[in-house]
Write a structure and sequence with these properties.
The chain is of the alpha+beta class and 935 residues long. Helix content is 30%, strand content 24%.
C-alpha cells in the first residue's frame, strides 16, 4: 500500500478534529516524502475525461505503476479512479491487475492528495481511539509507551516505505465473537457496560430514572457508578447529573490488513453499522501486517449476522445474544392474532417494540395531521404529498422484495389495542417467549354458555407461563391487567365473546393484507383505536366506516368536496378546428369507495389516483410512477402531482367506486341543489366519439344513455382516467334539464360533447311525454330508428294535434326543458292545420275558430327565453322539427296572426333579450304574452 493511500482518511480525520499529530513529519522532512509521479492530462482521451466526476479538473493524473496496490471501488465519486477504454466506452477497474497497465489511466482527486494540515503537536504515545461511533485500531503487538519516540517531533505526513512486489490485497477478520457463539448480556470478556448521562427532572428519583432506561427500578445501576458523589443516603436531586448503567454492549474484535478503516454491519432484531478508522501507528505503517480493531455494539437478545468490510474485503460471522438470568423479567404481555398466540414481553422485547413504533408510527401520524389540514382535494397540499411519499418509503419493504408481507400486528402492548412492527425484528423473540395458550381452545376458556371466561383465560396464562423453559420473574397482577385490556379488544370485534367465533378463522382477518390495511388506516397511532380515529380519507368531511376485524373500509363523501368543482373543458366548434371553453357548472361525485387489503393501502398511500371500468364496475386505484407516465401519454387532460408510489408496484387491484355523478341543478332549491345526473358504472365498449377526449361525452348505446367524464376535471389534480356512468330512468328528467341548460348557457349553439343520436332520442322522448302524457322512460330503451319512427308516425300527426294542445295547456312544466328542435316541431304542427282540423267542432269556442291552437302556440312561445333561442326555433319549424330557413318559420307564425296579434307579437320579439338570463328557466322567462288569442 502506498503512503498516499491514507490521505482521504487523514484529511477527513483532520476536518473532524480526530487526527493524531504523531503521524506528521517535521517541515524539514517533507521534501523527502514520497509523492506520486504526475502525468500530463493533455493526452487523455475525451471519453476518459468525461468519466471523471464532477469534472476532470478536480483530478491529477498519475503513473498507473504507482497505483498497482490500489484496491478501489467502482463509484464515480471515489477519490481514486482507474479507467480503461473498452468497446468505445470508459470502464472503471478495481485494481491495476485487471487490465494492461499501459492502457490504464490512473487519477487521484486533488482534494485528497493536496490537502494540507498545519500545526505542530507533541506525541503522547500510540493512542488510537476516536470515540463516538468510531472504534479503535492499534498495530498488533506495538508498544504504547516507547520513550525513544516520546520527544520526537511529530511528522506532517506518513513516512515513505518501500512497497514489496507481493503486497497482498486488503483483508479483514472478525475474531470475537466466534461463529455460533452465545453472548450473554452480563459482565464478561465479550461485553462492555453501556452508560447514559441523565439530568434529574422535578419529581424524578434514582429508581424512576433507572426504570425509565431499563424497565426495572434497580437503583444499583446509578449508585454503583456515581460513588461517592451519590449514595443511598445521599441520593441525587432534581438538577443533578448522574451516570446510568443501561445494560451491556457486545464487544466485537478483529484485525485488518492493507486498509485504513473497518466498517461493521449487523443484522438481527436490531440493525445498524459502525466504523473504526486508522488514526495512528507507531513508526511506519507496515503493509501486510495485522492491525487490531474493536467496536461495542448495542445489541438486544436474538440471532445476528455480523459483516466486517475493509477496502473491499469482507468477513461474516453469525452468533446469538441472550439476556442474563437476572434480566429475564416479564414486564408485559402481547397477543399475536396471526397465529393466535400470547407472548411474554421482557425489557429486551419491549425495547424492540418501542423502536419499531418509532419507525412505523410517525409516517401515519404525519399523514393524519396533513389530511386534517386539507379541505379541498382539487388542490393537493404539499404536506399531504410529502407525507404520502414518506409513508411509501416505509411501506416499500413491507409489500415488495424478500421482506414482503412481513408486518406483525401486536395486541395489548402497554395498553394499546394495536401496535405494528416489522416481523424480522420479532422472530427470535416469538420462539423464545411464546406461551402455549391458543385462544381457539374453547374447552379451556369458555363457560357453560360457550362465552369466553376471562377468569379461565387468566388462570391458563399463569399455568402456561410456569411451563416455559426459561425461568421468568413477573408480577402476577400483570396477567390480570393484560386480560382486561385484551378483553376490551376482543369485545370490540366479538360482542358476545362466543368462543365459537374465535374457533373460526374468519372472526378476525389476520392475513398480511388485512394487517397492512389496518396499519395504513392508522390503527397503530392511537392507544385506544376505534374506526373514527382512522386516517383513511381524502378530505376532512368524508365519512369512513371501518370494519376493524375484517379490515374493510367504506369511505363515503363528496369528491372533491361538497361544493363540487366547476366542470370546464375545451369543446370543438362545429365544422371547424377551433375550440372554445365550455362550463357545465358545478359537478361532484357522491360516492363510496370500498377499500380492502393491498388495494386499499395502495390507494391510501397514493398521491395520484386513476379509475377504470372492470366488468361494468368503476374501480379506483393508486397509481405507480409507471402508471402515471402511461396515463399522461394517453390522456392530455391528466394533471399528475409530484409523488412516488413505488411500494405497491406489483399490486394492480383497485377499489370499487359506487355512487353518482351529481350536478348543481339551477331548477332545484333548498339547502342543496345537487341532484344525481348519472350512476357510476356500466358497460363501456370503447369511446363514444371524439368528444370523449375533450372531457365529457354523453352517448346513447343499446337503449341506454351513457356519460363519460374525465376524472381529473371533477376530482382535481392527481386524478386520471374516465368515469363511466349510466343515466337510468330516474335521471332522464335531470338529463333533459342538464342538456337544455347547457344549450341556454352556450347561446343554443352546437354541443359537441353530446352524441347526435343521443340528443335526438332525448328531445324526442321529452316531446313524446308532453304530447301523450306517458312517462318519458316508455320512449327510451329502443333503437334510434324505432324512437324516430314513433315520433313521426304516432306523435307529429294532425290526429294528435288536439291531444297535444290539451297537454300543453294543462301541464306545460316540461316545456321549460324542450330544445329548439322540439318547440319548432310542435309549432309547425299547430300553425299548419289540415282540413280535418278546420271542420272539427271541438276546435271552435265562443271566441271563434282556432282559439285553442293559438293558446297552445302562445304557451310554447312564452317558454322561449331570448332571440338566440327564437332564431333556432324558427329554423326548426320544418316537418317533424326538420331544418328550414328562419323566414320560413316566421312566415308560418305570421299566417295565423291578425293585425292586432301581429303587432303584439312583433312587440314581444323586441322585448326578448339577445341572450338568456342566468338561473332557472322560470327566472329567465319574460312575464309577457306574445299575443292574445282571438277568433
Amino acid at each position: 500500500m502506498k503512503p498516499f493511500d491514507k490521505w482521504p482518511a487523514l484529511v477527513q480525520d483532520a476536518q473532524q478534529g480526530t487526527f493524531d499529530d504523531s503521524l506528521f513529519q517535521s517541515d524539514s522532512d517533507v521534501k523527502n516524502s514520497a509523492q506520486p509521479t504526475r502525468l500530463p492530462m493533455a493526452k487523455v482521451p475525451n471519453i476518459i475525461l468525461k468519466a471523471l466526476n464532477p469534472h476532470h479538473t478536480d483530478y491529477i493524473r498519475i503513473d498507473p505503476k504507482e497505483a498497482r496496490y490500489w484496491h478501489g471501488g467502482f463509484h464515480h465519486h471515489d477519490d481514486r479512479q482507474l479507467l480503461v477504454i473498452s468497446n468505445n466506452q470508459a470502464q472503471r477497474l478495481k485494481t491495476v491487475s485487471q487490465g494492461n497497465i499501459k492502457e490504464i489511466f490512473a487519477f487521484i482527486k486533488k482534494s485528497a492528495l493536496e490537502a494540507k494540515v498545519e500545526g505542530q503537536f507533541s506525541s503522547s504515545g500510540s493512542k488510537a481511539f476516536s470515540g463516538g461511533d468510531v472504534g479503535s485500531i492499534n498495530h498488533n503487538g506495538s508498544s504504547q509507551g516507547n520513550n525513544n519516540t516520546a520527544n520526537r517531533k511529530t511528522p506532517t505526513k506518513l513516512e515513505s516505505t518501500a512497497q514489496p512486489i507481493d503486497t497482498i490485497a486488503p483483508s479483514v477478520i472478525i475474531g470475537q465473537p466466534n461463529p455460533k457463539q452465545i453472548v450473554k448480556l452480563e459482565q464478561n470478556q465479550a461485553t462492555k457496560r453501556r452508560f447514559a448521562n441523565h439530568v434529574l427532572g422535578p419529581g424524578e428519583t434514582a429508581a424512576s430514572v433507572v426504570e425509565q432506561y431499563t424497565g426495572t427500578p434497580n437503583e444499583s445501576r446509578i449508585y454503583g457508578f456515581n460513588h461517592p458523589q451519590f449514595t443511598i443516603k445521599n441520593p441525587p436531586k432534581a438538577g443533578d447529573k448522574v451516570r446510568v448503567n443501561t445494560g451491556f454492549d457486545v464487544l466485537v474484535k478483529g484485525q485488518f490488513y492493507n486498509s485504513n478503516s473497518v466498517n461493521l454491519i449487523w443484522k438481527g432484531p436490531t440493525s445498524g453499522s459502525k466504523s473504526a478508522i486508522l488514526e495512528q501507528v507507531n513508526g511506519n505503517y507496515i503493509p501486510d501486517r495485522g492491525y487490531d480493531w474493536e467496536l461495542a455494539l448495542p445489541l438486544v437478545a436474538g440471532e445476528y449476522t455480523l459483516t466486517a468490510e475493509a477496502g473491499g474485503a469482507t468477513h461474516s460471522v453469525s452468533f446469538s445474544v441472550e439476556e442474563s438470568e437476572d434480566q429475564l423479567e416479564i414486564i408485559d404481555f402481547i397477543y399475536i392474532p396471526e397465529d393466535n398466540s400470547f407472548i411474554a414481553v421482557t425489557q429486551s422485547l419491549a425495547d424492540i417494540l418501542e423502536q419499531e413504533m418509532e419507525v412505523l408510527n410517525p409516517p401515519m401520524e404525519q399523514l393524519k395531521q396533513a389530511l386534517a389540514g386539507q379541505q379541498d382535494l382539487s388542490k393537493q397540499d404539499d404536506k399531504v404529498i410529502d407525507a404520502k411519499k414518506a409513508l411509501n418509503e416505509t411501506l416499500k419493504p413491507l409489500v415488495s422484495g424478500p421482506t414482503a408481507n412481513k408486518i406483525t400486528e401486536v395486541i395489548g402492548f402497554k395498553g394499546r389495542k394495536y401496535t405494528y412492527v416489522r416481523s424480522d425484528k420479532m422472530a427470535n423473540h416469538f420462539r423464545r417467549y411464546k406461551i402455549d395458550t391458543d385462544i381457539r381452545n374453547g374447552r379451556r376458556f369458555s363457560d357453560a354458555n360457550g362465552n369466553l371466561d376471562r377468569n379461565k383465560l387468566n388462570k391458563a396464562l399463569k399455568n402456561d407461563l410456569s411451563k416455559l423453559k426459561v425461568n421468568f420473574k413477573y408480577d402476577k397482577k400483570l396477567v390480570d391487567t393484560y386480560t382486561t385490556i385484551w378483553g376490551e379488544w376482543a369485545r370490540e370485534l366479538n360482542e358476545d365473546l362466543k368462543i365459537k367465533r374465535f374457533e373460526k378463522s374468519d372472526y378476525f382477518d389476520a392475513s398480511a393484507e388485512a394487517r397492512l390495511m389496518r396499519y395504513t388506516h392508522g390503527a397503530g397511532i392511537a392507544a385506544n383505536f376505534s374506526p373514527k380515529d382512522g386516517v383513511f380519507s381524502f378530505q376532512a368531511d368524508a365519512k369512513v366506516d371501518f370494519a376493524v376485524g375484517e379490515a374493510k373500509a367504506a369511505m363515503s363523501g363528496y369528491y372533491p368536496n361538497k361544493n363540487g368543482y366547476e366542470f370546464k373543458f375545451m369543446m370543438p366548434l362545429k365544422n371547424t378546428t377551433k375550440e372554445r371553453e365550455i362550463n357545465l357548472g358545478a359537478i361532484r361525485l357522491n360516492a363510496t369507495i370500498a377499500l380492502f387489503g393491498y388495494a386499499g393501502a395502495k390507494l391510501q398511500a397514493a398521491a395520484n389516483v386513476g379509475c377504470t371500468v372492470k366488468q361494468g364496475k368503476m374501480m379506483l386505484e393508486g397509481l405507480t410512477p409507471e402508471q402515471v407516465k402511461a396515463l399522461s401519454r394517453a390522456d392530455r387532460k391528466f394533471e399528475p402531482v409530484k409523488g412516488e408510489l413505488s411500494a405497491f408496484a406489483g399490486v394492480s387491484a383497485g377499489c370499487e367506486l359506487t355512487g353518482a355523478l351529481q350536478w348543481d341543478n339551477p331548477e332545484k332549491s333548498g339547502k342543496s341543489s345537487f341532484c344525481d345526473l348519472a350512476k357510476l358504472g356500466g358497460k363501456a365498449e370503447g369511446a363514444f366519439g371524439a368528444g370523449a377526449h375533450a372531457g365529457c361525452y354523453i352517448g346513447y348505446e343499446d337503449g341506454r344513455f351513457m356519460l363519460r367524464a374525465k376524472l381529473g376535471l371533477i376530482w382535481g389534480v392527481g386524478a386520471g382516467g374516465e368515469l363511466v356512468c349510466e343515466i337510468g330512468v330516474d335521471e332522464i328528467v335531470t338529463l333533459a334539464q342538464f342538456v337544455y341548460h347547457q344549450l341556454k348557457n352556450n347561446d343554443y349553439d352546437y354541443l359537441a360533447f353530446i352524441q347526435e343520436d343521443a340528443f335526438k332520442v332525448l328531445y324526442k322522448a321529452v316531446s313524446m311525454h308532453i304530447a301523450t302524457g306517458k312517462d318519458i322512460t316508455e320512449f327510451v330503451g329502443g333503437t334510434i330508428d324505432s324512437v324516430d319512427k314513433w315520433w313521426r308516425t304516432k306523435v307529429l300527426i294532425h290526429e294528435q294535434a288536439k291531444a297535444i294542445i290539451q297537454r300543453v295547456e294543462q301541464t306545460p312544466e316540461m316545456l321549460k326543458f324542450t330544445v329548439p328542435e322540439s318547440k319548432g316541431a310542435f309549432l309547425n304542427l299547430l300553425a299548419n292545420p289540415n282540413l280535418a282540423s278546420l271542420i272539427d267542432s271541438d276546435a271552435y269556442s265562443w271566441s271563434g275558430l282556432n282559439e285553442q291552437r293559438e293558446n297552445a302556440i302562445i304557451i310554447i312561445l312564452k317558454h322561449i327565453l331570448c332571440t338566440e333561442e327564437l332564431d333556432e326555433v324558427l329554423q326548426h319549424m320544418g316537418e317533424g322539427g326538420a331544418k328550414c330557413s328562419r323566414e320560413e318559420g316566421l312566415s308560418q307564425l305570421n299566417s295565423i296572426l291578425e293585425g292586432a296579434q301581429q303587432r303584439e307579437f312583433d312587440a314581444w320579439r323586441r322585448k326578448l333579450p339577445s341572450r338568456a338570463r342566468s338561473g332557472s328557466v322560470a327566472v329567465a322567462m319574460l312575464n309577457t304574452t306574445p299575443f292574445i288569442a282571438m277568433a
